[in-house]
């Protein structure tokens, strides 16, 4: 049998496919389905410190068609669980799954980053994904300097837990290559390149933005070109491993990312398309 095992952020994976953080990883049953279908790891649906993110009237999805391609427009609320409930969810997931379970969290104070990270570690999470780059999260929407915040947060969390720490990078940066090197220097054990793009469409007849019910993130097959460009450029310079994310619609796309230098590949959109 073909050996597809890999190492990502010091975690041993049976396959390089990781099912990324979204509604598709919001329950134990869905995590089990991911493992049954061959996932090497799963990233749980994000826990946000900001409670309003857990109660927004979502999800909202739309396929925005263009001339020769399309965008998958998504806006989801965060996990509805509070930190203690989320830690219990992680604990229960670890009892049911044999693959690594990566906890995804989004906080906006140093104390919360430390508290939530320690809770996830104590609950048995195999790693922590720092989700500062959510397109409709507090960090991107507030207009703060996201890379400075990411470097700062990586240092704080790395100094307070022993499990791998994995920042999820934003594609909306002047120089993702430089950002990746800074995050590694800050202590990142792995990197996710990248989260979705923040964007909108415009109705040229009404001359107004089209938000489809919310300010959200865009992804689709076109996004792979951006990821391939930066992963191929930065992977030879990094010691930490990369999980590619964005534009993966089939196995050939995953192979492209592996050949560009990624150790693993996160998928979300293609799983949603199996549901739609």
Topology at a glance:
Layout: E1 6-8, E2 11-13, E3 17-19, H1 28-36, E4 41-43, E5 47-48, E6 60-65, E7 70-75, H2 83-96, E8 101-106, H3 110-123, E9 127-130, H4 138-141, H5 146-158, E10 165-167, H6 176-185, E11 190-193, E12 197-198, E13 201-203, E14 208-210, E15 217-219, H7 224-234, E16 241-245, H8 251-260, E17 264-267, H9 269-275
Parallel strand pairs: 3-4, 3-17, 4-8, 5-8, 8-9, 9-10, 11-16, 16-17
Antiparallel strand pairs: 1-2, 6-7, 7-15, 12-15, 13-14
Would you mind describing this structure in some detail?
This protein is of the alpha/beta class. The chain has one domain (6-275): Aldolase class I (TIM Barrel). Helix content is 33%, strand content 23%. It contains nine helices and 17 strands. The two termini are 32 Å apart. The model has no long low-confidence stretch (mean pLDDT 92).
Please tell me what the overall shape is.
globular
The description of the largest β-sheet is: 9 strands, parallel
Radius of gyration: 17 Å
Instruction: Give the averaged pLDDT, no decimals.
Output: 92
Structural class: alpha/beta
User: End-to-end distance, in Å?
Assistant: 32 Å
Q: How many structural domains in the coordinates?
A: 1
**Number of extended strands:** 17
Number of helices: 9
CATH homologous superfamily (4th level) name: Aldolase class I
Series of H and E elements: EEEHEEEEHEHEHHEHEEEEEHEHEH
Oligomer: single chain
CATH topology, what is it called?
A: TIM Barrel
- Tell me, what is the CATH class? Alpha Beta
CATH architecture: Alpha-Beta Barrel
Provide the helix percentage. Answer: 25-40%
β-strand amount: 15-25%
């Amino acid at each position: 049998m073909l050996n597809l095992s890999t190492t990502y952020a010091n975690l041993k994976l049976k396959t390089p496919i990781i099912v990324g953080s979204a509604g598709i990883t919001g329950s134990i049953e869905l995590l089990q389905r991911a493992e049954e279908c061959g996932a090497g790891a799963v990233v749980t649906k994000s826990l946000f410190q900001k409670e309003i993110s857990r109660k927004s009237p979502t999800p909202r999805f739309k396929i925005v068609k263009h001339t020769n391609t399309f965008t998958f427009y998504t806006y989801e609320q965060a996990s509805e669980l509070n930190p203690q409930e989320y830690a219990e969810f992680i604990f229960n997931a670890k009892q049911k799954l044999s693959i690594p379970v990566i906890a995804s969290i989004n906080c906006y104070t140093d104390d919360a980053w430390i508290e939530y990270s320690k809770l996830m570690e104590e609950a048995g999470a195999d790693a922590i994904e720092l989700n500062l780059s959510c397109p409709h999260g507090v960090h991107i929407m507030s207009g703060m300097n996201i890379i400075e915040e990411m470097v700062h947060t990586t240092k704080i969390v790395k100094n307070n837990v022993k499990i791998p720490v994995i920042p999820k990078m934003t594609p909306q940066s002047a120089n993702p290559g430089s950002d990746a090197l800074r995050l590694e220097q800050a202590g990142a054990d792995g990197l996710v390149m990248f989260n979705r793009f923040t964007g909108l469409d415009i109705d040229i007849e009404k001359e107004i933005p089209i938000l489809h019910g919310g300010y959200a993130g865009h992804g689709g097959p076109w996004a792979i070109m951006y990821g391939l460009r930066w992963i191929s450029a930065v992977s030879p310079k990094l010691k930490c491993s990369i999980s590619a994310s964005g534009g993966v619609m089939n196995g050939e796309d995953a192979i492209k990312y592996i050949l560009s230098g990624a150790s693993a590949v996160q998928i979300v959109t293609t799983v949603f398309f199996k549901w739609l």
